[in-house]
Amino acid sequence: MKFKKLSVVMAALLAASSLLAACGGKNETQSTPEAESTEATEQEPAEAESEDAGQEDAASGGEVTLELLLTKSEIVSIMEEIAAKFCEENPGVKIDVTSTGDGATVVRTRAASNELPDIMNTYPAEDFYKDMFRDGYFEDITDAEYLSKVNSTAMEMSNCDGNYYAVPMSLSTYGIYANMDVLGANGITETPSTWEELIADCETLKANGVTAFLLPNKDVGNVAQRFERTAGIINNDTYSEFKKIADGEMEAKDSPTLQTWCDYNEDLLNYTADDHMGMDYDIAAAEFSNGNGGFMLSGTWMLATVQKNNPDANVELFAFPHPRGETTKVPVNIDTSFSISSTCKDKEIGLKFLEFMTREDIAQMYCDADGNVSTIEGVEYSIPQHANMKTAVDEGNIFLTAVNFWPTGLREEIRDGCQMFLGDLDRDAFFESSQEAIETIYADN
Amino acid sequence: MGEKKKSGRSKRDRGRNGAFLLFTAPGFFLYSFFFIMPVIMGIYYSTTDWDGITKSYNFIGFDNYLKIFRTGQFTDALFFTIKYTVLLVVFTIVFGLGIAMLLNRKIKGRTFFRGIYFIPAVLSSLTVGLIFNKICYYIIPVIGKFLHIQAISQNPLADKNLAMWVILFVNLWQGLCIPTLLFLAGLQSVPTDLYDGAALDGASAWDIFRYITVPFILPVVSVVFVLTLKGGLMVFDYIKAMTEGGPGNTTRSVAMLIYKHGFTQNKYAFAIAEAIFMGLVVAAISAVQIYFTDKKKAV
Amino acid sequence: MVEGRKQNNVLTYILLVLGIMLIILPLYVTFVTAFKSDAQSSKSFFTLPIPIYLESFKEVLTNERYWKAFINTVYITAIVLAGNIIIMPSMSYAVARKMPTSMGYRLVYYFLLLGIFIPFQVKMMPLVKLLSALNMMNPTGLAILCISSSTCESVFLFVGYMGAIPPDMEEAAWIDGAGTLRTYSSVVFPLLKPMLATVLIKQGLWIWNDFMLPLITLNRGWQDWTLTLFQYNFQTEYSINYSLTFATFVASMLPLLIFYCFMQKSIIGGLTSGAVKS
């Protein structure tokens, strides 16, 4: 009986929906003003014309809605605030902030359908985005005046064949976070500056029954990142070293970088939580923030998470000391940068938004919330937790992190072996899997 | 030619043919257009070097297919997937049937029990995976330590020997529901007088099961088999939510491998080639299965 | 005899209750965690939420995105189920009856079966291109896509079921002068109902809970999100907050749980009324 009723309802719904489907095209154009303008820009790909289309839209609809897609969840709230401010200053403009947890899939499908969001955060130093830049998915902003306000190192990093497609907002630096309250409670007042000091501090913490070093080894993405960043610290030019392995001039087991990576992890694993292999990054970050761990390897982006977890956490980021005692440089990467797509519904407003982001007060606002080192001129970087990192950047004691040079996919290929090693400390297996990973990926690229 | 009768029949058939064509057309069209056409496009991409983003790509023939076995990854993933699927199918049929028989007994609160046992089916597999991921970290170790069981006093998902079993458990936790109900339906199609007769004849419980229950539910078993087979061979959500294929690559299914190659390493065309190859393997297995069940039916 | 049966029933109860505990425990933890603050949870995950903490749940339920996602999900599911009701049984009827004599229909059947074995990834990116070219990257488009994708499995189930229904009754209807359409609607369709229930429940649950298809087609803004997308995106944003994370779990499964509570009898009844008869 109930079933019958249900089917009647369904049938009615279908009748309605088939009507919608029948007049497919019509329905689509009627539905939203957005769809209309997308069509307009698609039909007229030439820049000037589509700008006209955008203005027409603005004139007729009275309002333009641009989509701002964020693939970094931790900056959503601050970007919502900034977008609101932008809309306030630009009446008739609406910015819709969307975010996704699966950026890789979303950006790819949006690109495939030629419907990239109007504005989005990109990673201009990565091959994935460079390919898209070259293919014309994003607006070339080389001539934009406000780019002169961006730090030259950052500009260099986001250069793509002599052109620019993104405004880099911040640089992330990578190192070791120390929870100063935990260290202080155990009589340690300063962050260590050599590997020996670090191990000595870990020893102290361990003796006092404190988890010294948090290593979220279940999170294979985090394992991959740790490998990539620290391998880069051990040898700033891992590309050449691994190339030798790929070319058969060296075997993985003889690679100094891989050996050192194993050594230092063997050291650190003595001081980590028992369940490190079962720990995800978010859990480790929470434990660290709440004082259940002394050190954790991470980058400047983690500060926002730490403060969200525990506003009173007293943490400090310091450089990862070279495990073999050589000089240490800090790996940096472009953290957030914004681009506008070539299918942007209103490029003028899109460009205006990029300019807005580089305005001193806005960049300051962003920097304060984001925690990464700002690349915008005039922004005061006064985050005490990251003072060490600022010094490194100012002194030029930095290098662009390895992933930007490695052949595409190496990080994802090698990470399984890394994770296995962290679990079973089997060096031979690790070298074997690294050998295969390096050979395969270098052969592909 | 037996004019009259035949002409009536063929007239009916002609009328029927038109209607049947009409019945088949919409589904056939939708399926061809939104299912087969993308698949054909996919097959075409598998012969190129497309990375999934660039606007241009080159035709490279069957190179991607030749590369599938260049490393042991695909074989490893395939073996994992097959092992996982066999276990999933066996457990689904055994436990599904077992629970269905329990739920089919004339006991008080039968409707209540049936209601509860279906609840996991209404949840999304991703949510289920995420919930169990948290449970494995926060709760299982507490239980393990309390009971002094070494193996589960840490996150079992981190243990390369246990991780697959946890995923399998979670998959069954949710995946048993529908098969159980299908079995329950099958059990109710067994005429009760057959049971009563057998009981009077003094048949043992096993004999009753073997000679009365099994023949009646065989068609259900075959449906459950195909659906579970598909679920097992394509397993992705649970693994993505719980281990991402780890530790190392110990729980990496073919679907996870395809995801890794296509979406984290930008080897999209290569990933499709792997997916197509996987499809062929599955089709071969299923063809064998269908051949045998058809044979059985014919007997 | 009587005694033996009683003992067995005790065993039955024990086993069933054990099973229920396995089913309920994770759900219990999910629910209580959603209604406890993080501080409460970190003390123990098993205790009841006393005092009850409603902030997380309120935060989810007062989010307009949640309600929009809910409406989208209902909309998509309804269209897909309606499409399944109209298209699949009639198509399966034609295929099942013509298959023995017509090579063409046999080919159609195998052509459909093929779909069951094609991994999703093969068609994923082409699908995106196709849908966007047709301007179908929206809930309605997704619903049509889902109907198409459900064809193979639905037809497989219906045809298998049809095979067990002897054509006698249709013959009788024909002799009584009913046309094919009448025969179908008054004789065949009612006979297919038990299987229809199974198919609808299976497809309905799939659509409601699917993640991958919405992720690739409905990622142009929260206005299009389904509940799974809402839950996923919301949860990645607040992954460090268990209370909020579990509250989104609860919120995204609640509608279906409530629906199930009300419809439980017809759902279980529909499924067990002989979904598969030999």
UniProtKB/TrEMBL annotation, chain A:
InterPro entries: SBP (IPR006059). One of its GO terms (molecular function) is maltose binding. Residues 25-35 have a biased composition (Low complexity). Gene3D superfamilies: Periplasmic binding protein-like II (3.40.190.10). GO terms for biological process: maltodextrin transmembrane transport; maltose transport. Keywords: Signal, Transport. Residues 25-60 are annotated as: Disordered. PROSITE patterns: PROKAR_LIPOPROTEIN. It comes from the Bacteria. Residues 36-55 have a biased composition (Acidic residues). Residues 1-21 form the signal peptide. Coiled coil: none annotated. GO terms for cellular component: ATP-binding cassette (ABC) transporter complex, substrate-binding subunit-containing. PANTHER family: MALTOSE-BINDING PERIPLASMIC PROTEIN (PTHR30061), MALTOSE_MALTODEXTRIN-BINDING PERIPLASMIC PROTEIN (PTHR30061:SF50). Belongs to the bacterial solute-binding protein 1 family. This is Extracellular solute-binding protein. The lineage of its organism: Bacteria, Bacillati, Bacillota, Clostridia, Lachnospirales.
From TrEMBL, chain C:
Keywords: Cell membrane, Membrane, Transmembrane, Transmembrane helix, Transport. GO terms for biological process: transmembrane transport. Its main location: membrane. PROSITE patterns: ABC_TM1. It is a multi-pass membrane protein. CDD domains: TM_PBP2. Residues 70-263 form the ABC transmembrane type-1 domain. It is found in: Cell membrane. One of its GO terms (cellular component) is plasma membrane. The chain crosses the membrane at residues 12-35, 66-87, 107-128, 140-161, 242-263. It holds the Pfam family BPD_transp_1. InterPro entries: MetI-like, MetI-like_sf. Belongs to the binding-protein-dependent transport system permease family. This is Carbohydrate ABC transporter permease.
